[in-house]
Amino acid sequence: MSRQYELDDTSVVVVIGSGAGGGVIGAELSRQGIDVVCLEAGPRLTLADFVNDEALMFRKLTWLDPREGSGDLNPGLPAYICKTVGGTTVHWTALAMRPLADEFAALSKYGAIAGADLKNWPIAYDELTRYFTKAETKMGVAGTNGWPYHPGSNNYKVLESGARKLGYQEIDMGHLAINSVARDGRPKCRQIGFCKSGCAIGAKWSTLYTEIPRAEATNHFELRPESMVVGLNHSPNGRMTSVVYADKKGVLHEQKARAVCVAANSIETPRLLLNSASNLYPDGIGNGNGHVGRYYMRHVFAGVAALMPGPVNFHRGIQQAGSISDERYHESGRGFASGYHMEGAPLSPERLAFVLDADGWGKGYTDLLEQYTNFSACLIIGEDLPDPDNRVQLHPSRRDSFGLPIPTIHYDYHANSMAMREHAQTAVSRIYDAVGAKRTFRFGAPPATHNLGTCRMAADEKDGVCNALGQVYGTSNLFVSDGSQFVSSTTANPTLTIVALAMRQADHLATRMSRREL
Amino acid sequence: MKNMFRISAPDNHNLTRRKLLRSATLILALVTTSTRGLFARPQADDGGAAEEHLQQTLVRLARLLFPHGALPSGPYEDIAKALVSRAATDADFAESLQAGVAELDAGNPSPWSGRDEAGQLEAIRELEGGAFFRLMRTTTIEHLYRNNEVWQLLGYQGSSVEFGGYVDRGFDDIDWLPGTSAQQ
Q1: Which of A203, A439, B32, B148 meets the CB 3.0–4.6 Å disulfide criterion with A179?
Q2: Which of A157, A191, A358 sits opposite B167 (nearest CB)?
Q3: Where are the domains of chain A?
């Protein structure tokens, strides 16, 4: 039994969310002797709950509370986030990739782009680098710290072979936060597949079975699962005083707080700030300049499937089948800013049937599907741009079961993304053609799992929601601790950066607390 | 500028005005708050013939949408059963299902189920892009490609944790690629 705190204990830091942001900051604070209550909307599952069944695990892990999407989004499922202890670290494919220094200086590197409000990150890259190293060590990232890369799977080998023929150089199985050797009390990967359905043996890093139990063992941390935060209370001078949440029976509780870290993913984090409007914050906390919810970014995300001349069996093994990074670099003359990675990824029979041709049916179509074992597939992940009109807002009339406005998400693809997508899908198709693909098929993006930027950092209060340490402007003790802080999406999968920022923020909080500033 | 672009918007693809009108009608049927329904109201005294007709039509339709010659009818019957059972508790859904089948039957003296395969396929093509077509395509995919019999037919091996993963079961056994070197 871990420590339990009273609701009126004003000494605790309340962390909202238990994933890459919240789980990490909770563990880092408690490790330094700071008392933490972590409120997580989802249930606490165990490894025994993780079965190799995509459809079943989708229902168990997904945040399915009502939301509405508009623009280029699936209206009913506009974005994918998790509602479970561990958050998206249960679902992620574990690619722990560092963004490049340039990618934190989007405005300087790419110049101004119409339809986007580019800014540089207000953080020195050297400082981030230090935390990337700490994060990689914490997470056990293969290919760092002397841990070997994972062996190449069939799907990887197809891509690697084609990429080498075309002269690509930066090809590897990826910096995966999956144990390539037994370590940290967790086993080595057994190439199970189903990484996105929760790793059934715990070889993949997830806060569910790393940071959270470690935090509990410090005796400075209490996790309250199935606790949905509905609002923040504050003093007249902008100090957060308590967090209101509903337990699984819907009963409301008020937990007093010394400081509050919000890490509820880039849809629920701005929603909470907006839903906590008050006399002091008439448009929502931190929204004095109207930035909360804006600059919603995903990644430029699409795929190519290829029918190969022989068996690939891409369903076997680690789902994230390597990455090819040669195209990530910004180059003038390509018709778009920034770049993208090509990342191998399998499709289940169901996904293949849905995406190979979004309207496909009939004998010709099932003849293709029956060649399932001969398919290979690859996703492209590219930098998305911060468009102020892509945003999370509160629905004017629809309410959830707590009576709160549901979030709406509007997103339109930027012309830059369309040009990049075309370039990237052509590049992947060429890779497949180089190894004798019989046919290639381009497919569009499912609801995004990378949700970023809706409470962005800014050096100047008028440009964003929080400062370079994630502290929300106009408050003395409220921090954004997840991917909402991102100023730009970078070309890299976001989790490593989220973890690094959370570790950095924890150090900052601990220092200020030791000086009695918080 | 931004609104010029759409990714993966199949509803905007290749749609005739007639099909658009039809899907609009079906969407209206789906959102109507009517409490009437095919099975929610007392059945007409037809000895279950209407339900039988519906069931048979849906089984045939599912097979023509995703025909796998080697597959027995069981998996296709499961799809029809799932749709019919949802219709039994959801009057609006029942109405839209009925409307979809009526659409298939329309425009020809013989009901869709009595036509030859070419005629049946032609009628499905007429429905492409509409709400009923999308419902049938989605439902069929979700059932068929989560079915173990179908997985075996496709060579998809599915759950592996109980066998110790794929680490010793061919995750890296590709043998037809020249010059591959897995990362060490």
Answers
A1: A203
A2: A191
A3: 13-514
